[in-house]
Amino acid sequence: FLFLSGDGMEISVNKKGLRNFWRNRIMTAWIPYAAAEIIGMIFGVLPKYTQLSALAIIKDLLLIKPLHPFGWYMQCLFLYYIGFYLAHKLFGSKKACRYVVLLVVSALQFVFLRSLFKQQAFTFIFGMLAADSVKLREKVIQKPACGVLLLLSGAGCLLIRQMLFVQDFSWVYDLVYAVQVLMLTTGAVNIVGWLCTKIKPMLFESALYLGLISFEIYLYHGWIYNWLFGWPVSYLIITVFFLGSVIIAIPIYLTRSKL
After folding, report:
1. Ramachandran region of residue 143, left (φ > 0), alpha (ψ -120 to 50) or beta?
2. 232 exposed, middle or buried (CB, 10 Å; 0-12, 13-18, 19+)?
3. How far is the CA of 114 from the CAs of 31, 124, 174, 245, in angstroms?
4. Ranges in the chain, pLDDT < 50
5. CA–CA separation, 76 and 170 (whole Å)
6. pLDDT at residue 93, rounded to an integer
7. SS3 for 169?
8. Contact by Cβ (8 Å): 84, 9
9. For the whole model, what pTM was predicted?
C-alpha cells in the first residue's frame, strides 16, 4: 500500500499538481477509516470499542491514538501524506529537496516510533522514486529477473536478521528489516505485475477486482482477525478469515462508491 501510494501520488501530482490534494486524501482515506471506526463503536465489534470516553473517540478519529487493530498504518500513511504535501508545496520542481523532506519524515519515524513504522522507512519514498525515474521502472520494476533478485535479497535480509551480532544492535536490526521490507515489496510488485501479463484475462480481472476493495479489506479484516485470534490455526480458519474479510469489504466498497 505505501509503495503504491507513493508511486500513484507522485504520478498524479506530476501531471496536475496539488489541486484538491487534501480533499482527495480525506475522501479516499480518512472518511472510510472514520466510518469503519464509528460502525465499530456503534456495534461494539471489539472490546476496546465498547467503553469509550469522548477524548478516546477524538484521538481515534484524528489518528492520534487509533483504536483500530491495525491503525498504525493510517498514522504512517498520513505522516507520509503530510511530508509529501510539504515537499511539493515548498520545493516544487526541486526533486532532490523533495526527497530530503520525505527522508526526514522517514528518519523521524525510524527514530521515535515503534517497529512497524521503522519497517516502512523506504517503501513510500521508493514508490515516489519509481514514479519519477523511467529508467528505474524499466530496469527494476518491470523486469521479472530483477523481481526474482529482489525477492532473494529480501530473503537474504531475513537471514541476516537472525545473526546474533545484528540482533545485539536494535537500530541495525531495524535498518536491515526496513531493507528487507523494501526488497520484498518491490519484488512482489514486479512479479505480480509480470504474472498478470501472462495469465488468462479472467484471472487478471479477478485480481483487479480484489485490488478495488483492498482498502476496505484492510479496514475490516482487523475485526475478523480479532474475532478468530483465539482459535487454533487451520485451513478452515484461514478460509473463514479470507472469505469473511472479502464478504464484509464488498458491500462497504459498493456503498462508498455510491456515496
Report:
1. beta
2. exposed
3. 25, 17, 10, 26
4. none
5. 21
6. 81
7. coil
8. yes
9. 0.89
